[in-house]
Write a structure and sequence with these properties.
With about 375 residues, the protein is of the alpha/beta class. Helix content is about 40%, strand content about 15%. It has 2 domains: about 150 residues, Four Helix Bundle (Hemerythrin (Met), subunit A) (Up-down Bundle); about 200 residues, 3-Layer(aba) Sandwich (Rossmann fold), CATH 3.40.50.10470. The protein has a 7-stranded mixed beta sheet. A 4-stranded mixed beta sheet has the order 11-8-9-14, covered by helices on one side. A hairpin with a 2-residue loop joins strand 15 and strand 16. Helix 1 packs parallel to helix 3, helix 4 runs antiparallel to helix 5 and helix 5 crosses helix 6. The two termini are about 20 Å apart. The structure holds 5-S-methyl-1-O-phosphono-5-thio-D-ribulose (MRU). The site of 5-S-methyl-1-O-phosphono-5-thio-D-ribulose (MRU) has 17 residues, from helix 2 and strand 9. 5-S-methyl-1-O-phosphono-5-thio-D-ribulose binds next to helix 2 and strand 9.
């Protein structure tokens, strides 16, 4: 990323070494504490990485994938260091088994964002490919780290490209609406749904963004509002149930959202509430754009009906910042995502271009293999 693009220094996750002993670790911005506190965590064990993903300390499909890739590389480096400390050899078979087990551990954290599965599979594939060359295990561990760094770098690049393509759909003076957080905090770059907004704003277009607060975990209020404010993009925070009111008033030009998984027919799983927005947008003839990298496309699933929807704990609904807001013992549903059927989606903006219906054919034409 061009360092001068962002006014703030939003960094979500990165590879680093412990200052004291040079041990490999992952630096991570704890998003669960934003915007009140900006706290950086340093993770040295794969279990900490899995916990950080499960507890939304790092969240958003692309950066979940990058974090998982770093987690696999970290686990490999940790195992090698442990063996070296006791002067015991690490065999290729042991390394492969460990990488496989850690991938499974990470994949159990959140079922909907396909980037998690995509990234861990890519890490395992990388190991299998180089293992055939009978390279020393130490070098294989270093290559895993390089692969994770490559995944992060590709994410940065993809965000730029989505931003450039998407900005073409934004005109000077537009008011746009977004849901959840699909910005820099959800990626290692400038975001997905927010990337076109950043690129359009930097090119001199005057914009206004309506930000859904996004109950129950408030990614809109806590993260998107913070991120846009840091970047000086004019915004108005609204509660989720206000969106229809503003659409009816004719205030919204278009809607930009991210995605956690896109099925082969173009159905999109994204943060709960996206489907309601899409139906409302359709009724008001407002275009709804989904912005996502190819790593979010899952051509193995024919439709959104097969996308696993994460069910999260009831406390996210019954409490706000630890304070109970509902009667004790009340029954609660908490699906973290919903599926928007493809007829409600005006276009899917990827790093390879803007995809329009018919999605089944046009998504297949994108080369989604990496
Ligand atoms: C570029 S992020 C795309 C999606 O991951 C985003 O819209 C979203 O739904 C995030 O959900 P979250 O539960 O915060 O991980």
């Amino acid at each position: 990323m061009d360092d001068s693009f962002f006014h703030s220094q939003v960094r979500t996750v990165w590879w680093e070494e412990d200052e004291a002993d040079g041990r490999a670790q992952i630096g991570l911005l704890d998003q669960s504490l934003l915007p009140q506190q900006v706290v950086i965590m340093h993770l040295q064990h794969e279990q900490q990485v899995a916990d950080a993903i499960a507890s939304l300390k790092v969240r958003g499909a692309p950066v979940i994938g990058v974090t998982a890739a770093f987690g696999v590389a970290l686990a490999a480096a940790r195992l090698l260091a442990e063996r070296q400390a006791v002067q015991r050899e690490l065999t290729l078979a042991e390394l492969s088994e460990h990488v496989h087990e850690v991938s499974q551990l990470l994949c159990r954290t959140r079922p909907t964002a396909v980037n998690l599965f995509w990234a861990t599979e890519r890490m395992q594939r990388c190991l299998q490919q180089v293992a055939r060359t009978s390279m020393p295990v130490q070098q294989l561990v270093a290559l895993l780290q390089e692969e994770a760094q490559a995944i992060a770098a590709e994410d940065v690049q993809a965000c730029w490209q989505m931003g450039m393509y998407g900005a073409e759909l934004i005109a000077d003076g537009d008011t746009l609406l977004t849901h959840c957080n699909a910005g820099a905090l959800a990626t290692t770059g400038i975001g997905t749904a927010l990337a076109p907004i950043y690129v359009a704003a930097r090119s001199g277009k005057n914009l206004h963004v309506l930000v859904d607060e996004t109950r129950p975990v408030l990614q809109g209020a806590r993260l998107t509002a913070w991120e846009l404010q840091q970047e000086g993009i004019p915004l108005t925070l609204i509660t989720d149930n206000m969106a229809g009111h503003f659409m009816r008033q004719g205030n919204i030009r278009s809607i930009f959202v991210g995605a956690d998984r896109i099925a082969a027919n173009g159905d999109v799983a994204n943060k709960i509430g996206t489907y309601s927005l899409a139906v409302l947008a359709h009724a008001h003839q407002i275009p709804l754009y989904v912005v996502a990298p190819c790593s979010t496309i899952d051509l193995s699933l024919p439709s959104g009906d097969q996308i696993p929807i994460e069910q999260r704990k009831p406390e996210e609904v019954t409490t706000l910042y630890g304070t109970s807001i509902a009667p004790a013992g009340v029954a609660v549903a908490n699906p973290a995502f919903d599926v928007t059927p493809h007829p409600y989606i005006s276009a899917i903006i990827t790093e390879k271009g803007i995809v329009r219906p018919p999605y089944r054919e046009n998504l297949r034409e994108l080369d989604t293999e990496h």
